[in-house]
Design goal:
401 residues; alpha/beta; Rossmann fold; 8-stranded mixed sheet; 18% strand; Glyco_trans_1; D-inositol 3-phosphate glycosyltransferase; Glycosyltransferase_grp1; glycosyltransferase activity
Amino acid sequence: MTDSATPLSEPVADRRPLTIVMAADTFGPDVNGAARFAERLSAGLAARGHDVHVVTPSVTHARHGTFTEVFEEQSITVHRLPGWRWYPHDWLRFVLPWMAKHYARRILDDVKPDVVHSQSHIVIGRGMTRIARQRGIPVIATNHVMAENIIDFTTLPPVLDKVVIKLAWDDAKRTFGMSRAVTTPTRRAAEFLERTIDIDGVIAISCGIDKGNYTPDLTPRPHRRVLFVGRLTTEKHVEVTLEAIAKLVPELDVVFDIVGGGDQRRNLEQTAHRLGIDDRVVFYGRTSEEDLRAAYTRADVFAIASIAELQSIATMEAMASGLPIVAADAVALPHLVHDGENGYLFEPGNSDDLADKLRRVLTASPEEYLRMQQASLTAVEAHDINKTLDTFEKLYRGEPL
């Protein structure tokens, strides 16, 4: 007998909790945008009742296996495959590529997921996508990669870099072609991917943040603290901000706080010394979440000179903390920073332009500064983590967006 309240023409969607395998070449304790996104997405899905399994390299080669780990106060099943350190990089670990399909078969046999979400097309996501496709398991793929993110760590002669990058993108196209949907954090990043590997229909889905975790300070105060949060790697171009700070020091009592670790820290410390601003720059290294949020609240402006951001979670966190942003006019940063509204964009690599835009923020009238703060808080509303979770749940279930 059919329930009269449920017409046959309108079947009820299956809303049962899903079993999801998250394939991630980088995950906690790594500190980078892709890892942070995978952590928050996995924790958010677990909080909604889904059974989430993360597949990622082990922190040390000796300690691999399946563990229950806590991220964002949620317990997640993490399958840590034997990981090998890539020594040209300060933290990167990888799974042997020729073993990726073997591990994928084993985990898919054990977990029997409803869907696989690949966070990388390089090793684990690549192997998992191919085996999942063979078994009829739908795959959602998210791209976090740009050439600038990896080019410095290939150890190959520069003449070969373009060849290697082309081969990598060709393989990415084949991997993405096996997926139900391909996503990336912003529309600009989607256009970049569509243009780079000649595919259509890439979906822009914000990484998302919980703005309730951040504490904006909207009280009037002197403005002197510039903040950067992120990995200290070459594509971040933190040296451009150091040069801008040096240009401001003669006229402004400015301090530059740098939160994050990376292979370029020693070079950046030497640059600060060469510029004569050692006493104006504080390197905090990696910090706890509590200290990170305090750094955002304490700062007066967030500066990011990176040329390789597909979104920038750190910039969104700064916006949620009520900070005006000064950012390089490159890739996806203009998606977050609207010039003259919640801060300013500057010409990438141009320290004079960056210094000028920082000066505008730091010397703004109280009314103008508050207007930029409120513009950041308004703009970040579009990146609420719950909207991100809703969208991925629809993709996992094969529902229209």
